[in-house]
Amino acid sequence: MTTKYSVECWIFAPDQRVLLLQVPARPGKHDAFWQPVTGGIEGTETPREAVLREIAEETALQLTAGDVHEVATGIDVVISPELTVSKTLFTANAPHTDVVTAPDEHQDHQWVAADHVAAALFWDSNRETWNTVQKYLTAESHADDA
């Protein structure tokens, strides 16, 4: 079995809406669907370096290492008996909502209210990571209150 390492990032606008990117339909494979920023870790990149690169490539947002927060690592998604994707999960705060999507990867984007994110997602694995992000943010907000 092969394991590919990837990153997934849930980006929040200043008003706390969440960025989703639309992957175009592939006839015979899948309809168009919504997902967060996601992509593979290349070569000797760290997950943090990979997520910053993916954010820039997929949204044109130029964020820094301090703008992204690691939520979890080693989230394994079995794609097939031959392939598992092991994700490192991040959140990021965007300074604005001006996004330019990469036309070779995404055909649209939208900023979605947090309570509508799960319903917009196609993949169960994205809904599961969204739940992980929500739990992380809830724990962080309670830690700030202490």
From TrEMBL:
Keywords assigned by UniProt, alphabetized: Hydrolase
Cofactor needs: Mg(2+)
Entry coiled-coil feature ranges: none
Entries under Gene3D superfamilies matching the protein: Nucleoside Triphosphate Pyrophosphohydrolase
SUPFAM superfamilies associated with the record: Nudix
The Nudix hydrolase domain, residue ranges: 2-137
Protein's UniProt keywords contain Hydrolase: yes
UniProt entry tagged with the keyword Membrane: no
InterPro entries hit by this protein: NUDIX_hydrolase-like_dom_sf, NUDIX_hydrolase_dom
Name of this chain's protein: NUDIX domain-containing protein
Species this chain originates from: Streptomyces polyasparticus
